[in-house]
Amino acid sequence: MSILVVGSIGFDTVTTPHGKVEDALGGSATFFSAAASFFAPVKIVAVVGEDFAPSTLDFLRRAGADTEGVSVDKGQTFRWTGSYGAEMGDATTHATLLNVFQEFRPEIPHAYRGEPFVFLANIDPELQLRVLDQVEKPELVVCDTMDFWISGKRDALVELLKHVDVLVINETEAKTLAGESNPIRAAKAILPMGPSRVVVKLGEYGVMLIGEDKIYRLPAFPVEEVCDPTGAGDSFAGGFVGKLAQTRDLSFEGMHRALLAGAVCASFTVESFSMDRLKGIDRNAIDERCRDLEHIAGWTWSALAV
Amino acid sequence: MSILVVGSIGFDTVTTPHGKVEDALGGSATFFSAAASFFAPVKIVAVVGEDFAPSTLDFLRRAGADTEGVSVDKGQTFRWTGSYGAEMGDATTHATLLNVFQEFRPEIPHAYRGEPFVFLANIDPELQLRVLDQVEKPELVVCDTMDFWISGKRDALVELLKHVDVLVINETEAKTLAGESNPIRAAKAILPMGPSRVVVKLGEYGVMLIGEDKIYRLPAFPVEEVCDPTGAGDSFAGGFVGKLAQTRDLSFEGMHRALLAGAVCASFTVESFSMDRLKGIDRNAIDERCRDLEHIAGWTWSALAV
Questions:
Q1: Which among B185, B298, B304 has the least Cβ separation from residue A216?
Q2: Superfamily for domain range B3-301
Q3: Which of A101, B50, B268, B283 pairs with A113 at a CA distance of 20 to 30 A?
């Protein structure tokens, strides 16, 4: 099963306690695809500027991604500058240059419109809705969002959620969207808005999956040296949706299991700047770390103990 | 197997977004014992003042706890006043009246000195050392501590850790003790100080167990309405050590499994002020929630799926 992803491609200038990178490859569609491509073919719709060397996405094409939907517009590519403090919590944004992204109106190529899995990366919910208007009935629609849209374009976001199967959202955003101070109550309050499942990202503490009156938790893979958290959420979503596209097991338990792949992809992402670590590993490395995380979470030995 | 616990008994005046209690039963030895007593007999060494009604501890005695080691000194019982904000993070302390606790020099009754399990609740590490001087070689020594001692009595704490098997410590304290910003590196840096296992409490995100080159994680039981976090850490330790005393399985995997009981006791504690919720439940309620948490953590279905 292949996946349509619509999101951003950009260049990040990031400072962390471990150093600094300038104009490193970033963007929600890029991090998502770098992770998802380990599991399933990805078709990317995004926009870049004239300054974007086509070879930049060669690593994704080699992994089976289709980049025909990445259009090149007149102007510069989206750029973000941010930094992280010692605790590696939320980024501080120093500059956001939308550039060609400002006028991005996603046009889904006809060849992509029947994709069974759709991931709407974090962009304006009006554009996310526009994507759903263009695709045929997908098997699974997963979307991400952020505080900026929760407060700035709430109506469009609420409309979007009616058409989404799984919302992937971080803890603070879930609380803001639901107006709740507790993450479980927040996720439960989001369910009636549309998604049948809500995945709440808890950062270094892992993820929570809520729906069908059930809750599942998975810890993050323990990373001792976090180099740069940028893209962790998008590569989590990439591993998660990629795994679902591979297994096609959309049961609640199948989703719980797919969180493993998401958590592991995120753990590789944060170990380097940009997508450097993800680029340097193969599927074996992912699978091995998934087995480690199963063990850490107690899945392995508890299974053996039964 | 029974457990010797040495710690504080006091009265807490606590304000949270859910209300306020005045002079409610609190203290590290009390919360620990309320939880541990579900699993094993507890022998308590602590001090109270003349204002402490002996019947206050009846509920522990009914649960099989031995309170002969609770001495009554001239003066008032230890009192703490604190509050929690909407996010229910760390407490803000408004007043600490040590009262009789100021002169507390734990004397372990002879009948208690051969106890196989010892829990040193969070008190001055010099006093914790004094306890260990008085007991015969226990099978398992578990201890807790806090920032106050980590910075104020570091030498005594470092000496104590040489004689401890398991250190139970919260994330911030582990980082401070180890001088590390990452919780995994922090726990790994603590191991050479003495304990063969370190349990890092991650608050609402659960716990991490580190040792023997292994890491295990367990999520917290998801609580939708946290009424008062006071005592969560001590009742976590009570459930954990109590379960170990019941199973006597001190293997790394046995400890991972025992974390369940700790997490569940903590979850009941935070659902009310003081020990009210723990007092109102029986072992069946604990076991049922343990099974729920196994399911939430993925232990159950992954076992079934194998």
A1: B298
A2: Ribokinase (3.40.1190.20)
A3: A101
